[in-house]
Inverse folding.
């Protein structure tokens, strides 16, 4: 069923930050956007300086920067001045440990205040910040710390003991482990952060980084090979700042809730940096999703702008179907969603439940900031990701067999979503992987790996991934990383992993395994494999199901045909099988 366009009113247009799309597109320049930030007199730029120091200097020191709600409902508030002081102390702790510009500081933490302080303090110190998702198992953590040559890890005692301690000594680069929840005595080889923070000075002069100095290292996944460390520089803050204003309609004084975990790129760029540079109050909830709790937070915290994700919206829709009370959120002005396709039903459900629609937007780890969005003042076509941001030039392209790139101008032509490089937050490389990085660019375009279409009004429609990566509950999962762990099990000869559609999580991970000769499939072995994967990879990444096959479909050159497994599982056409090696099923 085609969904009716949701029309915005003249008063929507009058009240939005980006009132008229065409005018904004015509008048926008990245130089002007850069001019809205303070920078340093010598042309330097530092993300944390823009997020904290600039706000304090502008008289916002007493404003609430961060309201943290603990699992047990305890609340901790930090004004901009207090958050700055905490970040300064953290930067001083790093300094006292000999950590400074260019060093790599990793955080493996739940959504605790220390995570926010560590991120901002690291950036102030001129060091590079990398968040790790706390639901990762030891394997993804270790791979990411090895690739990024981590120098410092900030974590909790439980996470350290469960996920890091066993292999820590093998990571030569790792100089310090700071534990956030040790009051005094820290276990051997670690440092208790709280007493170190208490001893550290509250003043710190933010390191004068340059715009091209590395600031953030965010990991993402491809179809093959190890995770990729996307390098982002301080200049990215220009995009974080301005896109928060245009795509999320943020303005000073807003109460803003980004439900993404800072272990992923959205939770850092739009869960820490963008809101603070825009002078808003961040709400952070430590607890996991709970429909009733979310309802209460939205209402009681008087959230004005809410940035969430389709999986969470679908879970709320389910809960609401049982209990369709209005949310009662008169303060809520703008709702946005990112990370996976947002079903048109969910956009329209927003109108019923909240009196306003969800605004879908699109970006990825590599782009560093939102690229395509439904803006507050723009009519929404439910199911579309919206239109490119001012300063962003997008297209739909096709690669010829020779590798030439051709833009597809015909409305609704299916091709790869591509962007013209030139925006400030584009990744500067995949760490140590020049060839993989170069492959993302061709014919003057950055190729996103997503398949999409553009309609005659310039709205973009997501179709799917061009590769085999899986999006489960908004988390990007590389099949290779999962297959490698399954292959480590002594019973496994071959493994292939695909994403299967799921009504709530978007996709769920399913694994296919061929056993070594002489071994028989059994329910006990299936459970053992699931447990093995869960222990090594963590619940967020591990397969939810394992199926046995005599062998897996492969091309004649030996590559496992994941797409064929998926087509068979879903009863879809099997496509071109000319490269398929004969197989026994
Ligand atoms: P990540 O790098 O983990 O943020 O994942 C980026 C990928 O998530 C994109 O390349 C898309 O495949 C998917 N994605 C992000 N936003 C959307 C959206 N609004 N609609 C559909 N897919 C999305």
């Amino acid at each position: 069923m085609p969904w009716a366009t949701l029309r915005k009113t003249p008063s929507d247009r009058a009240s939005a930050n980006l009132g008229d799309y065409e005018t904004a597109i015509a008048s926008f320049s990245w130089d002007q956007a850069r001019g809205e930030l303070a920078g340093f007199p010598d042309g330097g730029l530092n993300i944390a300086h823009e997020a904290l120091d600039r706000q304090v200097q502008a008289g916002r020191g007493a404003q609430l920067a961060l309201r943290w709600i603990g699992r047990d409902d305890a609340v901790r508030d930090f004004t901009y001045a207090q958050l700055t002081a905490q970040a300064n102390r953290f930067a001083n702790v790093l300094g006292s440990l000999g950590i400074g510009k260019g060093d790599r500081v990793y955080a493996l933490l739940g959504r605790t205040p220390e995570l926010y302080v560590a991120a901002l303090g690291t950036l102030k110190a001129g060091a590079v910040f990398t968040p790790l998702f706390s639901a990762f198992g030891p394997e993804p953590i270790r791979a990411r710390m090895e690739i990024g040559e981590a120098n410092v890890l900030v974590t909790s005692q439980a996470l350290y003991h469960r996920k890091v301690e066993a292999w820590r000594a093998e990571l030569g680069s790792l100089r310090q482990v700071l534990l956030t929840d040790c009051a005094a005595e820290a276990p051997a080889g670690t440092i208790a952060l709280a007493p170190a923070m208490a001893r550290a000075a509250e003043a710190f002069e933010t390191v004068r980084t340059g715009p091209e100095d590395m600031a953030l290292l965010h990991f993402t996944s491809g179809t093959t090979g190890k995770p990729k460390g996307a390098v982002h520089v301080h200049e990215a803050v220009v995009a974080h700042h301005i896109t928060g204003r245009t795509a999320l309609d943020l303005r000073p004084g807003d109460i803003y809730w980004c439900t993404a975990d800072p272990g992923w790129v959205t939770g850092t760029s739009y869960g820490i940096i963008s809101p603070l540079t825009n002078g808003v109050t961040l709400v952070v909830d430590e607890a996991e999703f709970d429909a009733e709790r979310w309802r209460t937070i939205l209402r009681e915290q008087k959230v004005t702008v809410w940035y969430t994700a389709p999986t969470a919206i679908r879970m709320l829709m389910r809960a609401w179907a049982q209990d369709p009370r209005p949310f009662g959120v008169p303060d809520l002005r703008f709702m946005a969603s990112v990370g996976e396709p947002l079903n048109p039903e969910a956009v329209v459900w927003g109108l019923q439940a909240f009196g306003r629609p969800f605004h879908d937007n699109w970006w990825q780890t590599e782009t560093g900031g939102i690229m395509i969005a439904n803006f507050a003042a723009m009519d929404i076509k439910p199911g579309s990701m919206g239109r490119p941001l001012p300063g962003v030039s997008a297209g739909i392209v096709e690669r010829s067999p020779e590798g030439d790139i051709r833009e597809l101008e015909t409305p609704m032509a299916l091709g790869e979503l591509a962007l013209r490089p030139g925006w400030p937050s584009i990744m500067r490389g995949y760490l140590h992987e020049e060839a993989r990085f170069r492959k993302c660019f061709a014919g003057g375009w950055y190729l996103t790996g997503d398949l999409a279409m553009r309609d005659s009004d310039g709205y973009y429609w997501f179709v799917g991934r061009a590769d085999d990566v899986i999006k489960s509950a908004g988390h990007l999962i590389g099949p290779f990383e999962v297959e490698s762990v399954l292959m480590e099990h002594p019973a496994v000869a071959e493994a292939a992993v695909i994403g299967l559609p799921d009504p709530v999580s978007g996709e769920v991970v399913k694994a296919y395994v061929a056993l070594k000769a002489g071994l028989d499939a059994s329910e006990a072995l299936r459970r053992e494999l699931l447990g093995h994967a869960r222990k090594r990879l963590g619940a967020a990444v591990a397969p939810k199901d394992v199926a046995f096959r005599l062998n897996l479909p492969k091309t004649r050159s030996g590559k496992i045909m994941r797409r064929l497994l998926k087509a068979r599982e879903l009863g879809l056409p099997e496509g071109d099988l000319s490269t398929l090696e004969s197989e026994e099923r």
Summary: The domain at 468-570 is CATH 3.30.300.30 (GMP Synthetase; Chain A, domain 3).
